[in-house]
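Following up on my earlier thread - several people asked me to post the actual chain instead of describing it. Fair enough. Here it is, all 254 residues.
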Amino acid sequence: MNRAERFLVFASPVGVFALWEALAHLGWIDVRILPPPSAVAVTMVVMFREEGLLDHTGATALRFLVGMAVGVVPGVLLGLTMGIFRWFRAFANPLVALFYPIPRIALFPLVLILVGLNETSNIIMIALGPFFTMLISAMYSVLNIDRIYRDVAENFETGPRHLYTMVTLPAAMPTLMGGLRISVGLGLLGTVAVEFLVGESGIGHVIWNSWQVLSLQRSMAGLVVSAVFGFAVYLSMDLLERYLVPWQQKSTAA
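Reply from S.P.:
Thanks for posting it. Predicted structure:
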């Protein structure tokens, strides 16, 4: 990413906030419903100083990261296995087709009954979206790998461990990075949704409590913090991709 691209990455969000501020001052936006960014920024400073907004952000970040790990790692492993072994795909694919379309929030009462009202149930709910996304992405990325790579590995009598780590995973990695970007949004969505329902901490808890008492500026402050957090995590995928898939960067530049 060159200097001009880096500038545009940060200029775009700044432009959105500037437009929002200008429309508010021109009276084209009802500030009682949608406070301008300047008012929201002042509220955020107060909340960081006096209401523990930083602690709530940390709680959300921790839930998000743990939920992503719990969902992404098994999702990738199962997806690779389904892509490599036809018999396992024939067994597992109907189960994926059965459970994947179910709305995640509809499973929450069942998870609460099985696990209880605790942090474990929150992590499970957060992990469901990334799990299915990465499973499906991994499976279809393996199915689209050129067969010649598998044939060469079999001719060299490659064992199962190396078939995963040295052949299949590197070939599937570019597609997996796309699935991981989608999973970031789903993971943050699941985190905030869980905090809406049962959380006693976190950004979702702040947004929902503020809405219940009709404190729109506090609610918007929580929304902006969650947006900035998601923005930072999404951009970090570029750095992760540059580390995990360096050959993809070279081919793109060429």
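The radius of gyration is 22 Å. That should answer part of your original question.
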